[in-house]
Amino acid sequence: SCASFVMVVTPKKRNTFCKKCKKHQPHKVAPSPKGKASLYAQGKRRYDAKQAGYGGQTKPVFHKKAKLTKKIVVRIECSKCKARRNLGMKRGKSLQIL
Fold first, then answer.
1. Residue 79 contacts residue 15 (beta carbons within 8 Å)
2. Cα separation of the two ends of the chain
3. Contact 97, 76 (CB under 8 A)
4. What is the pTM of this model?
5. Residue 43 phi/psi, 5° resolution?
6. Torsion-angle region of residue 93: left (phi > 0), alpha (psi -120 to 50) or beta?
C-alpha cells in the first residue's frame, strides 16, 4: 500500500564507507540537488528544432503519470576528505533529515 511510502527519514550524519579514504567515516547527509537540464542533449535539440516556427505544440504532452513516489537520492559528504557521492534510498514522497 501507499502508506509506507509517505516519508523517508534519515539522520544528518551517518557512518558509512568512503571510497577515497577506503574505510568507514562519518558522512554528512543532504538532499541531492536536481541536475540542470542540458540545452545540447540530442533530444532537447531535436525538440527545439521541431517546436521552432509556426504550428503550435508538435510533440505529445505526457499526462498519464503512473508513479506516486520518486526514488529518494541523498548526497553524502565525507567529513575527513570531503569526497561526495550520491546514495540512492528507497521510494518516498518526501525526505526528512533529522
1. no
2. 25
3. no
4. 0.75
5. -65, -40
6. alpha
Distance CA 20, CA 42 (A): 34
What is the band of 6 on the pLDDT scale with cuts at 50, 70, 90? confident
CA–centroid distance for 60 within its chain? 25
What is the CA 46 to chain-centroid distance, rounded? Answer: 25
For 6, the grid coordinates are 509517505
What confidence tier does 37 reach under pLDDT thresholds 50, 70, 90? very high
- What count of residues does the chain have? 98
Using 50, 70 and 90 to split pLDDT, how confident is the model at 32? Answer: very high
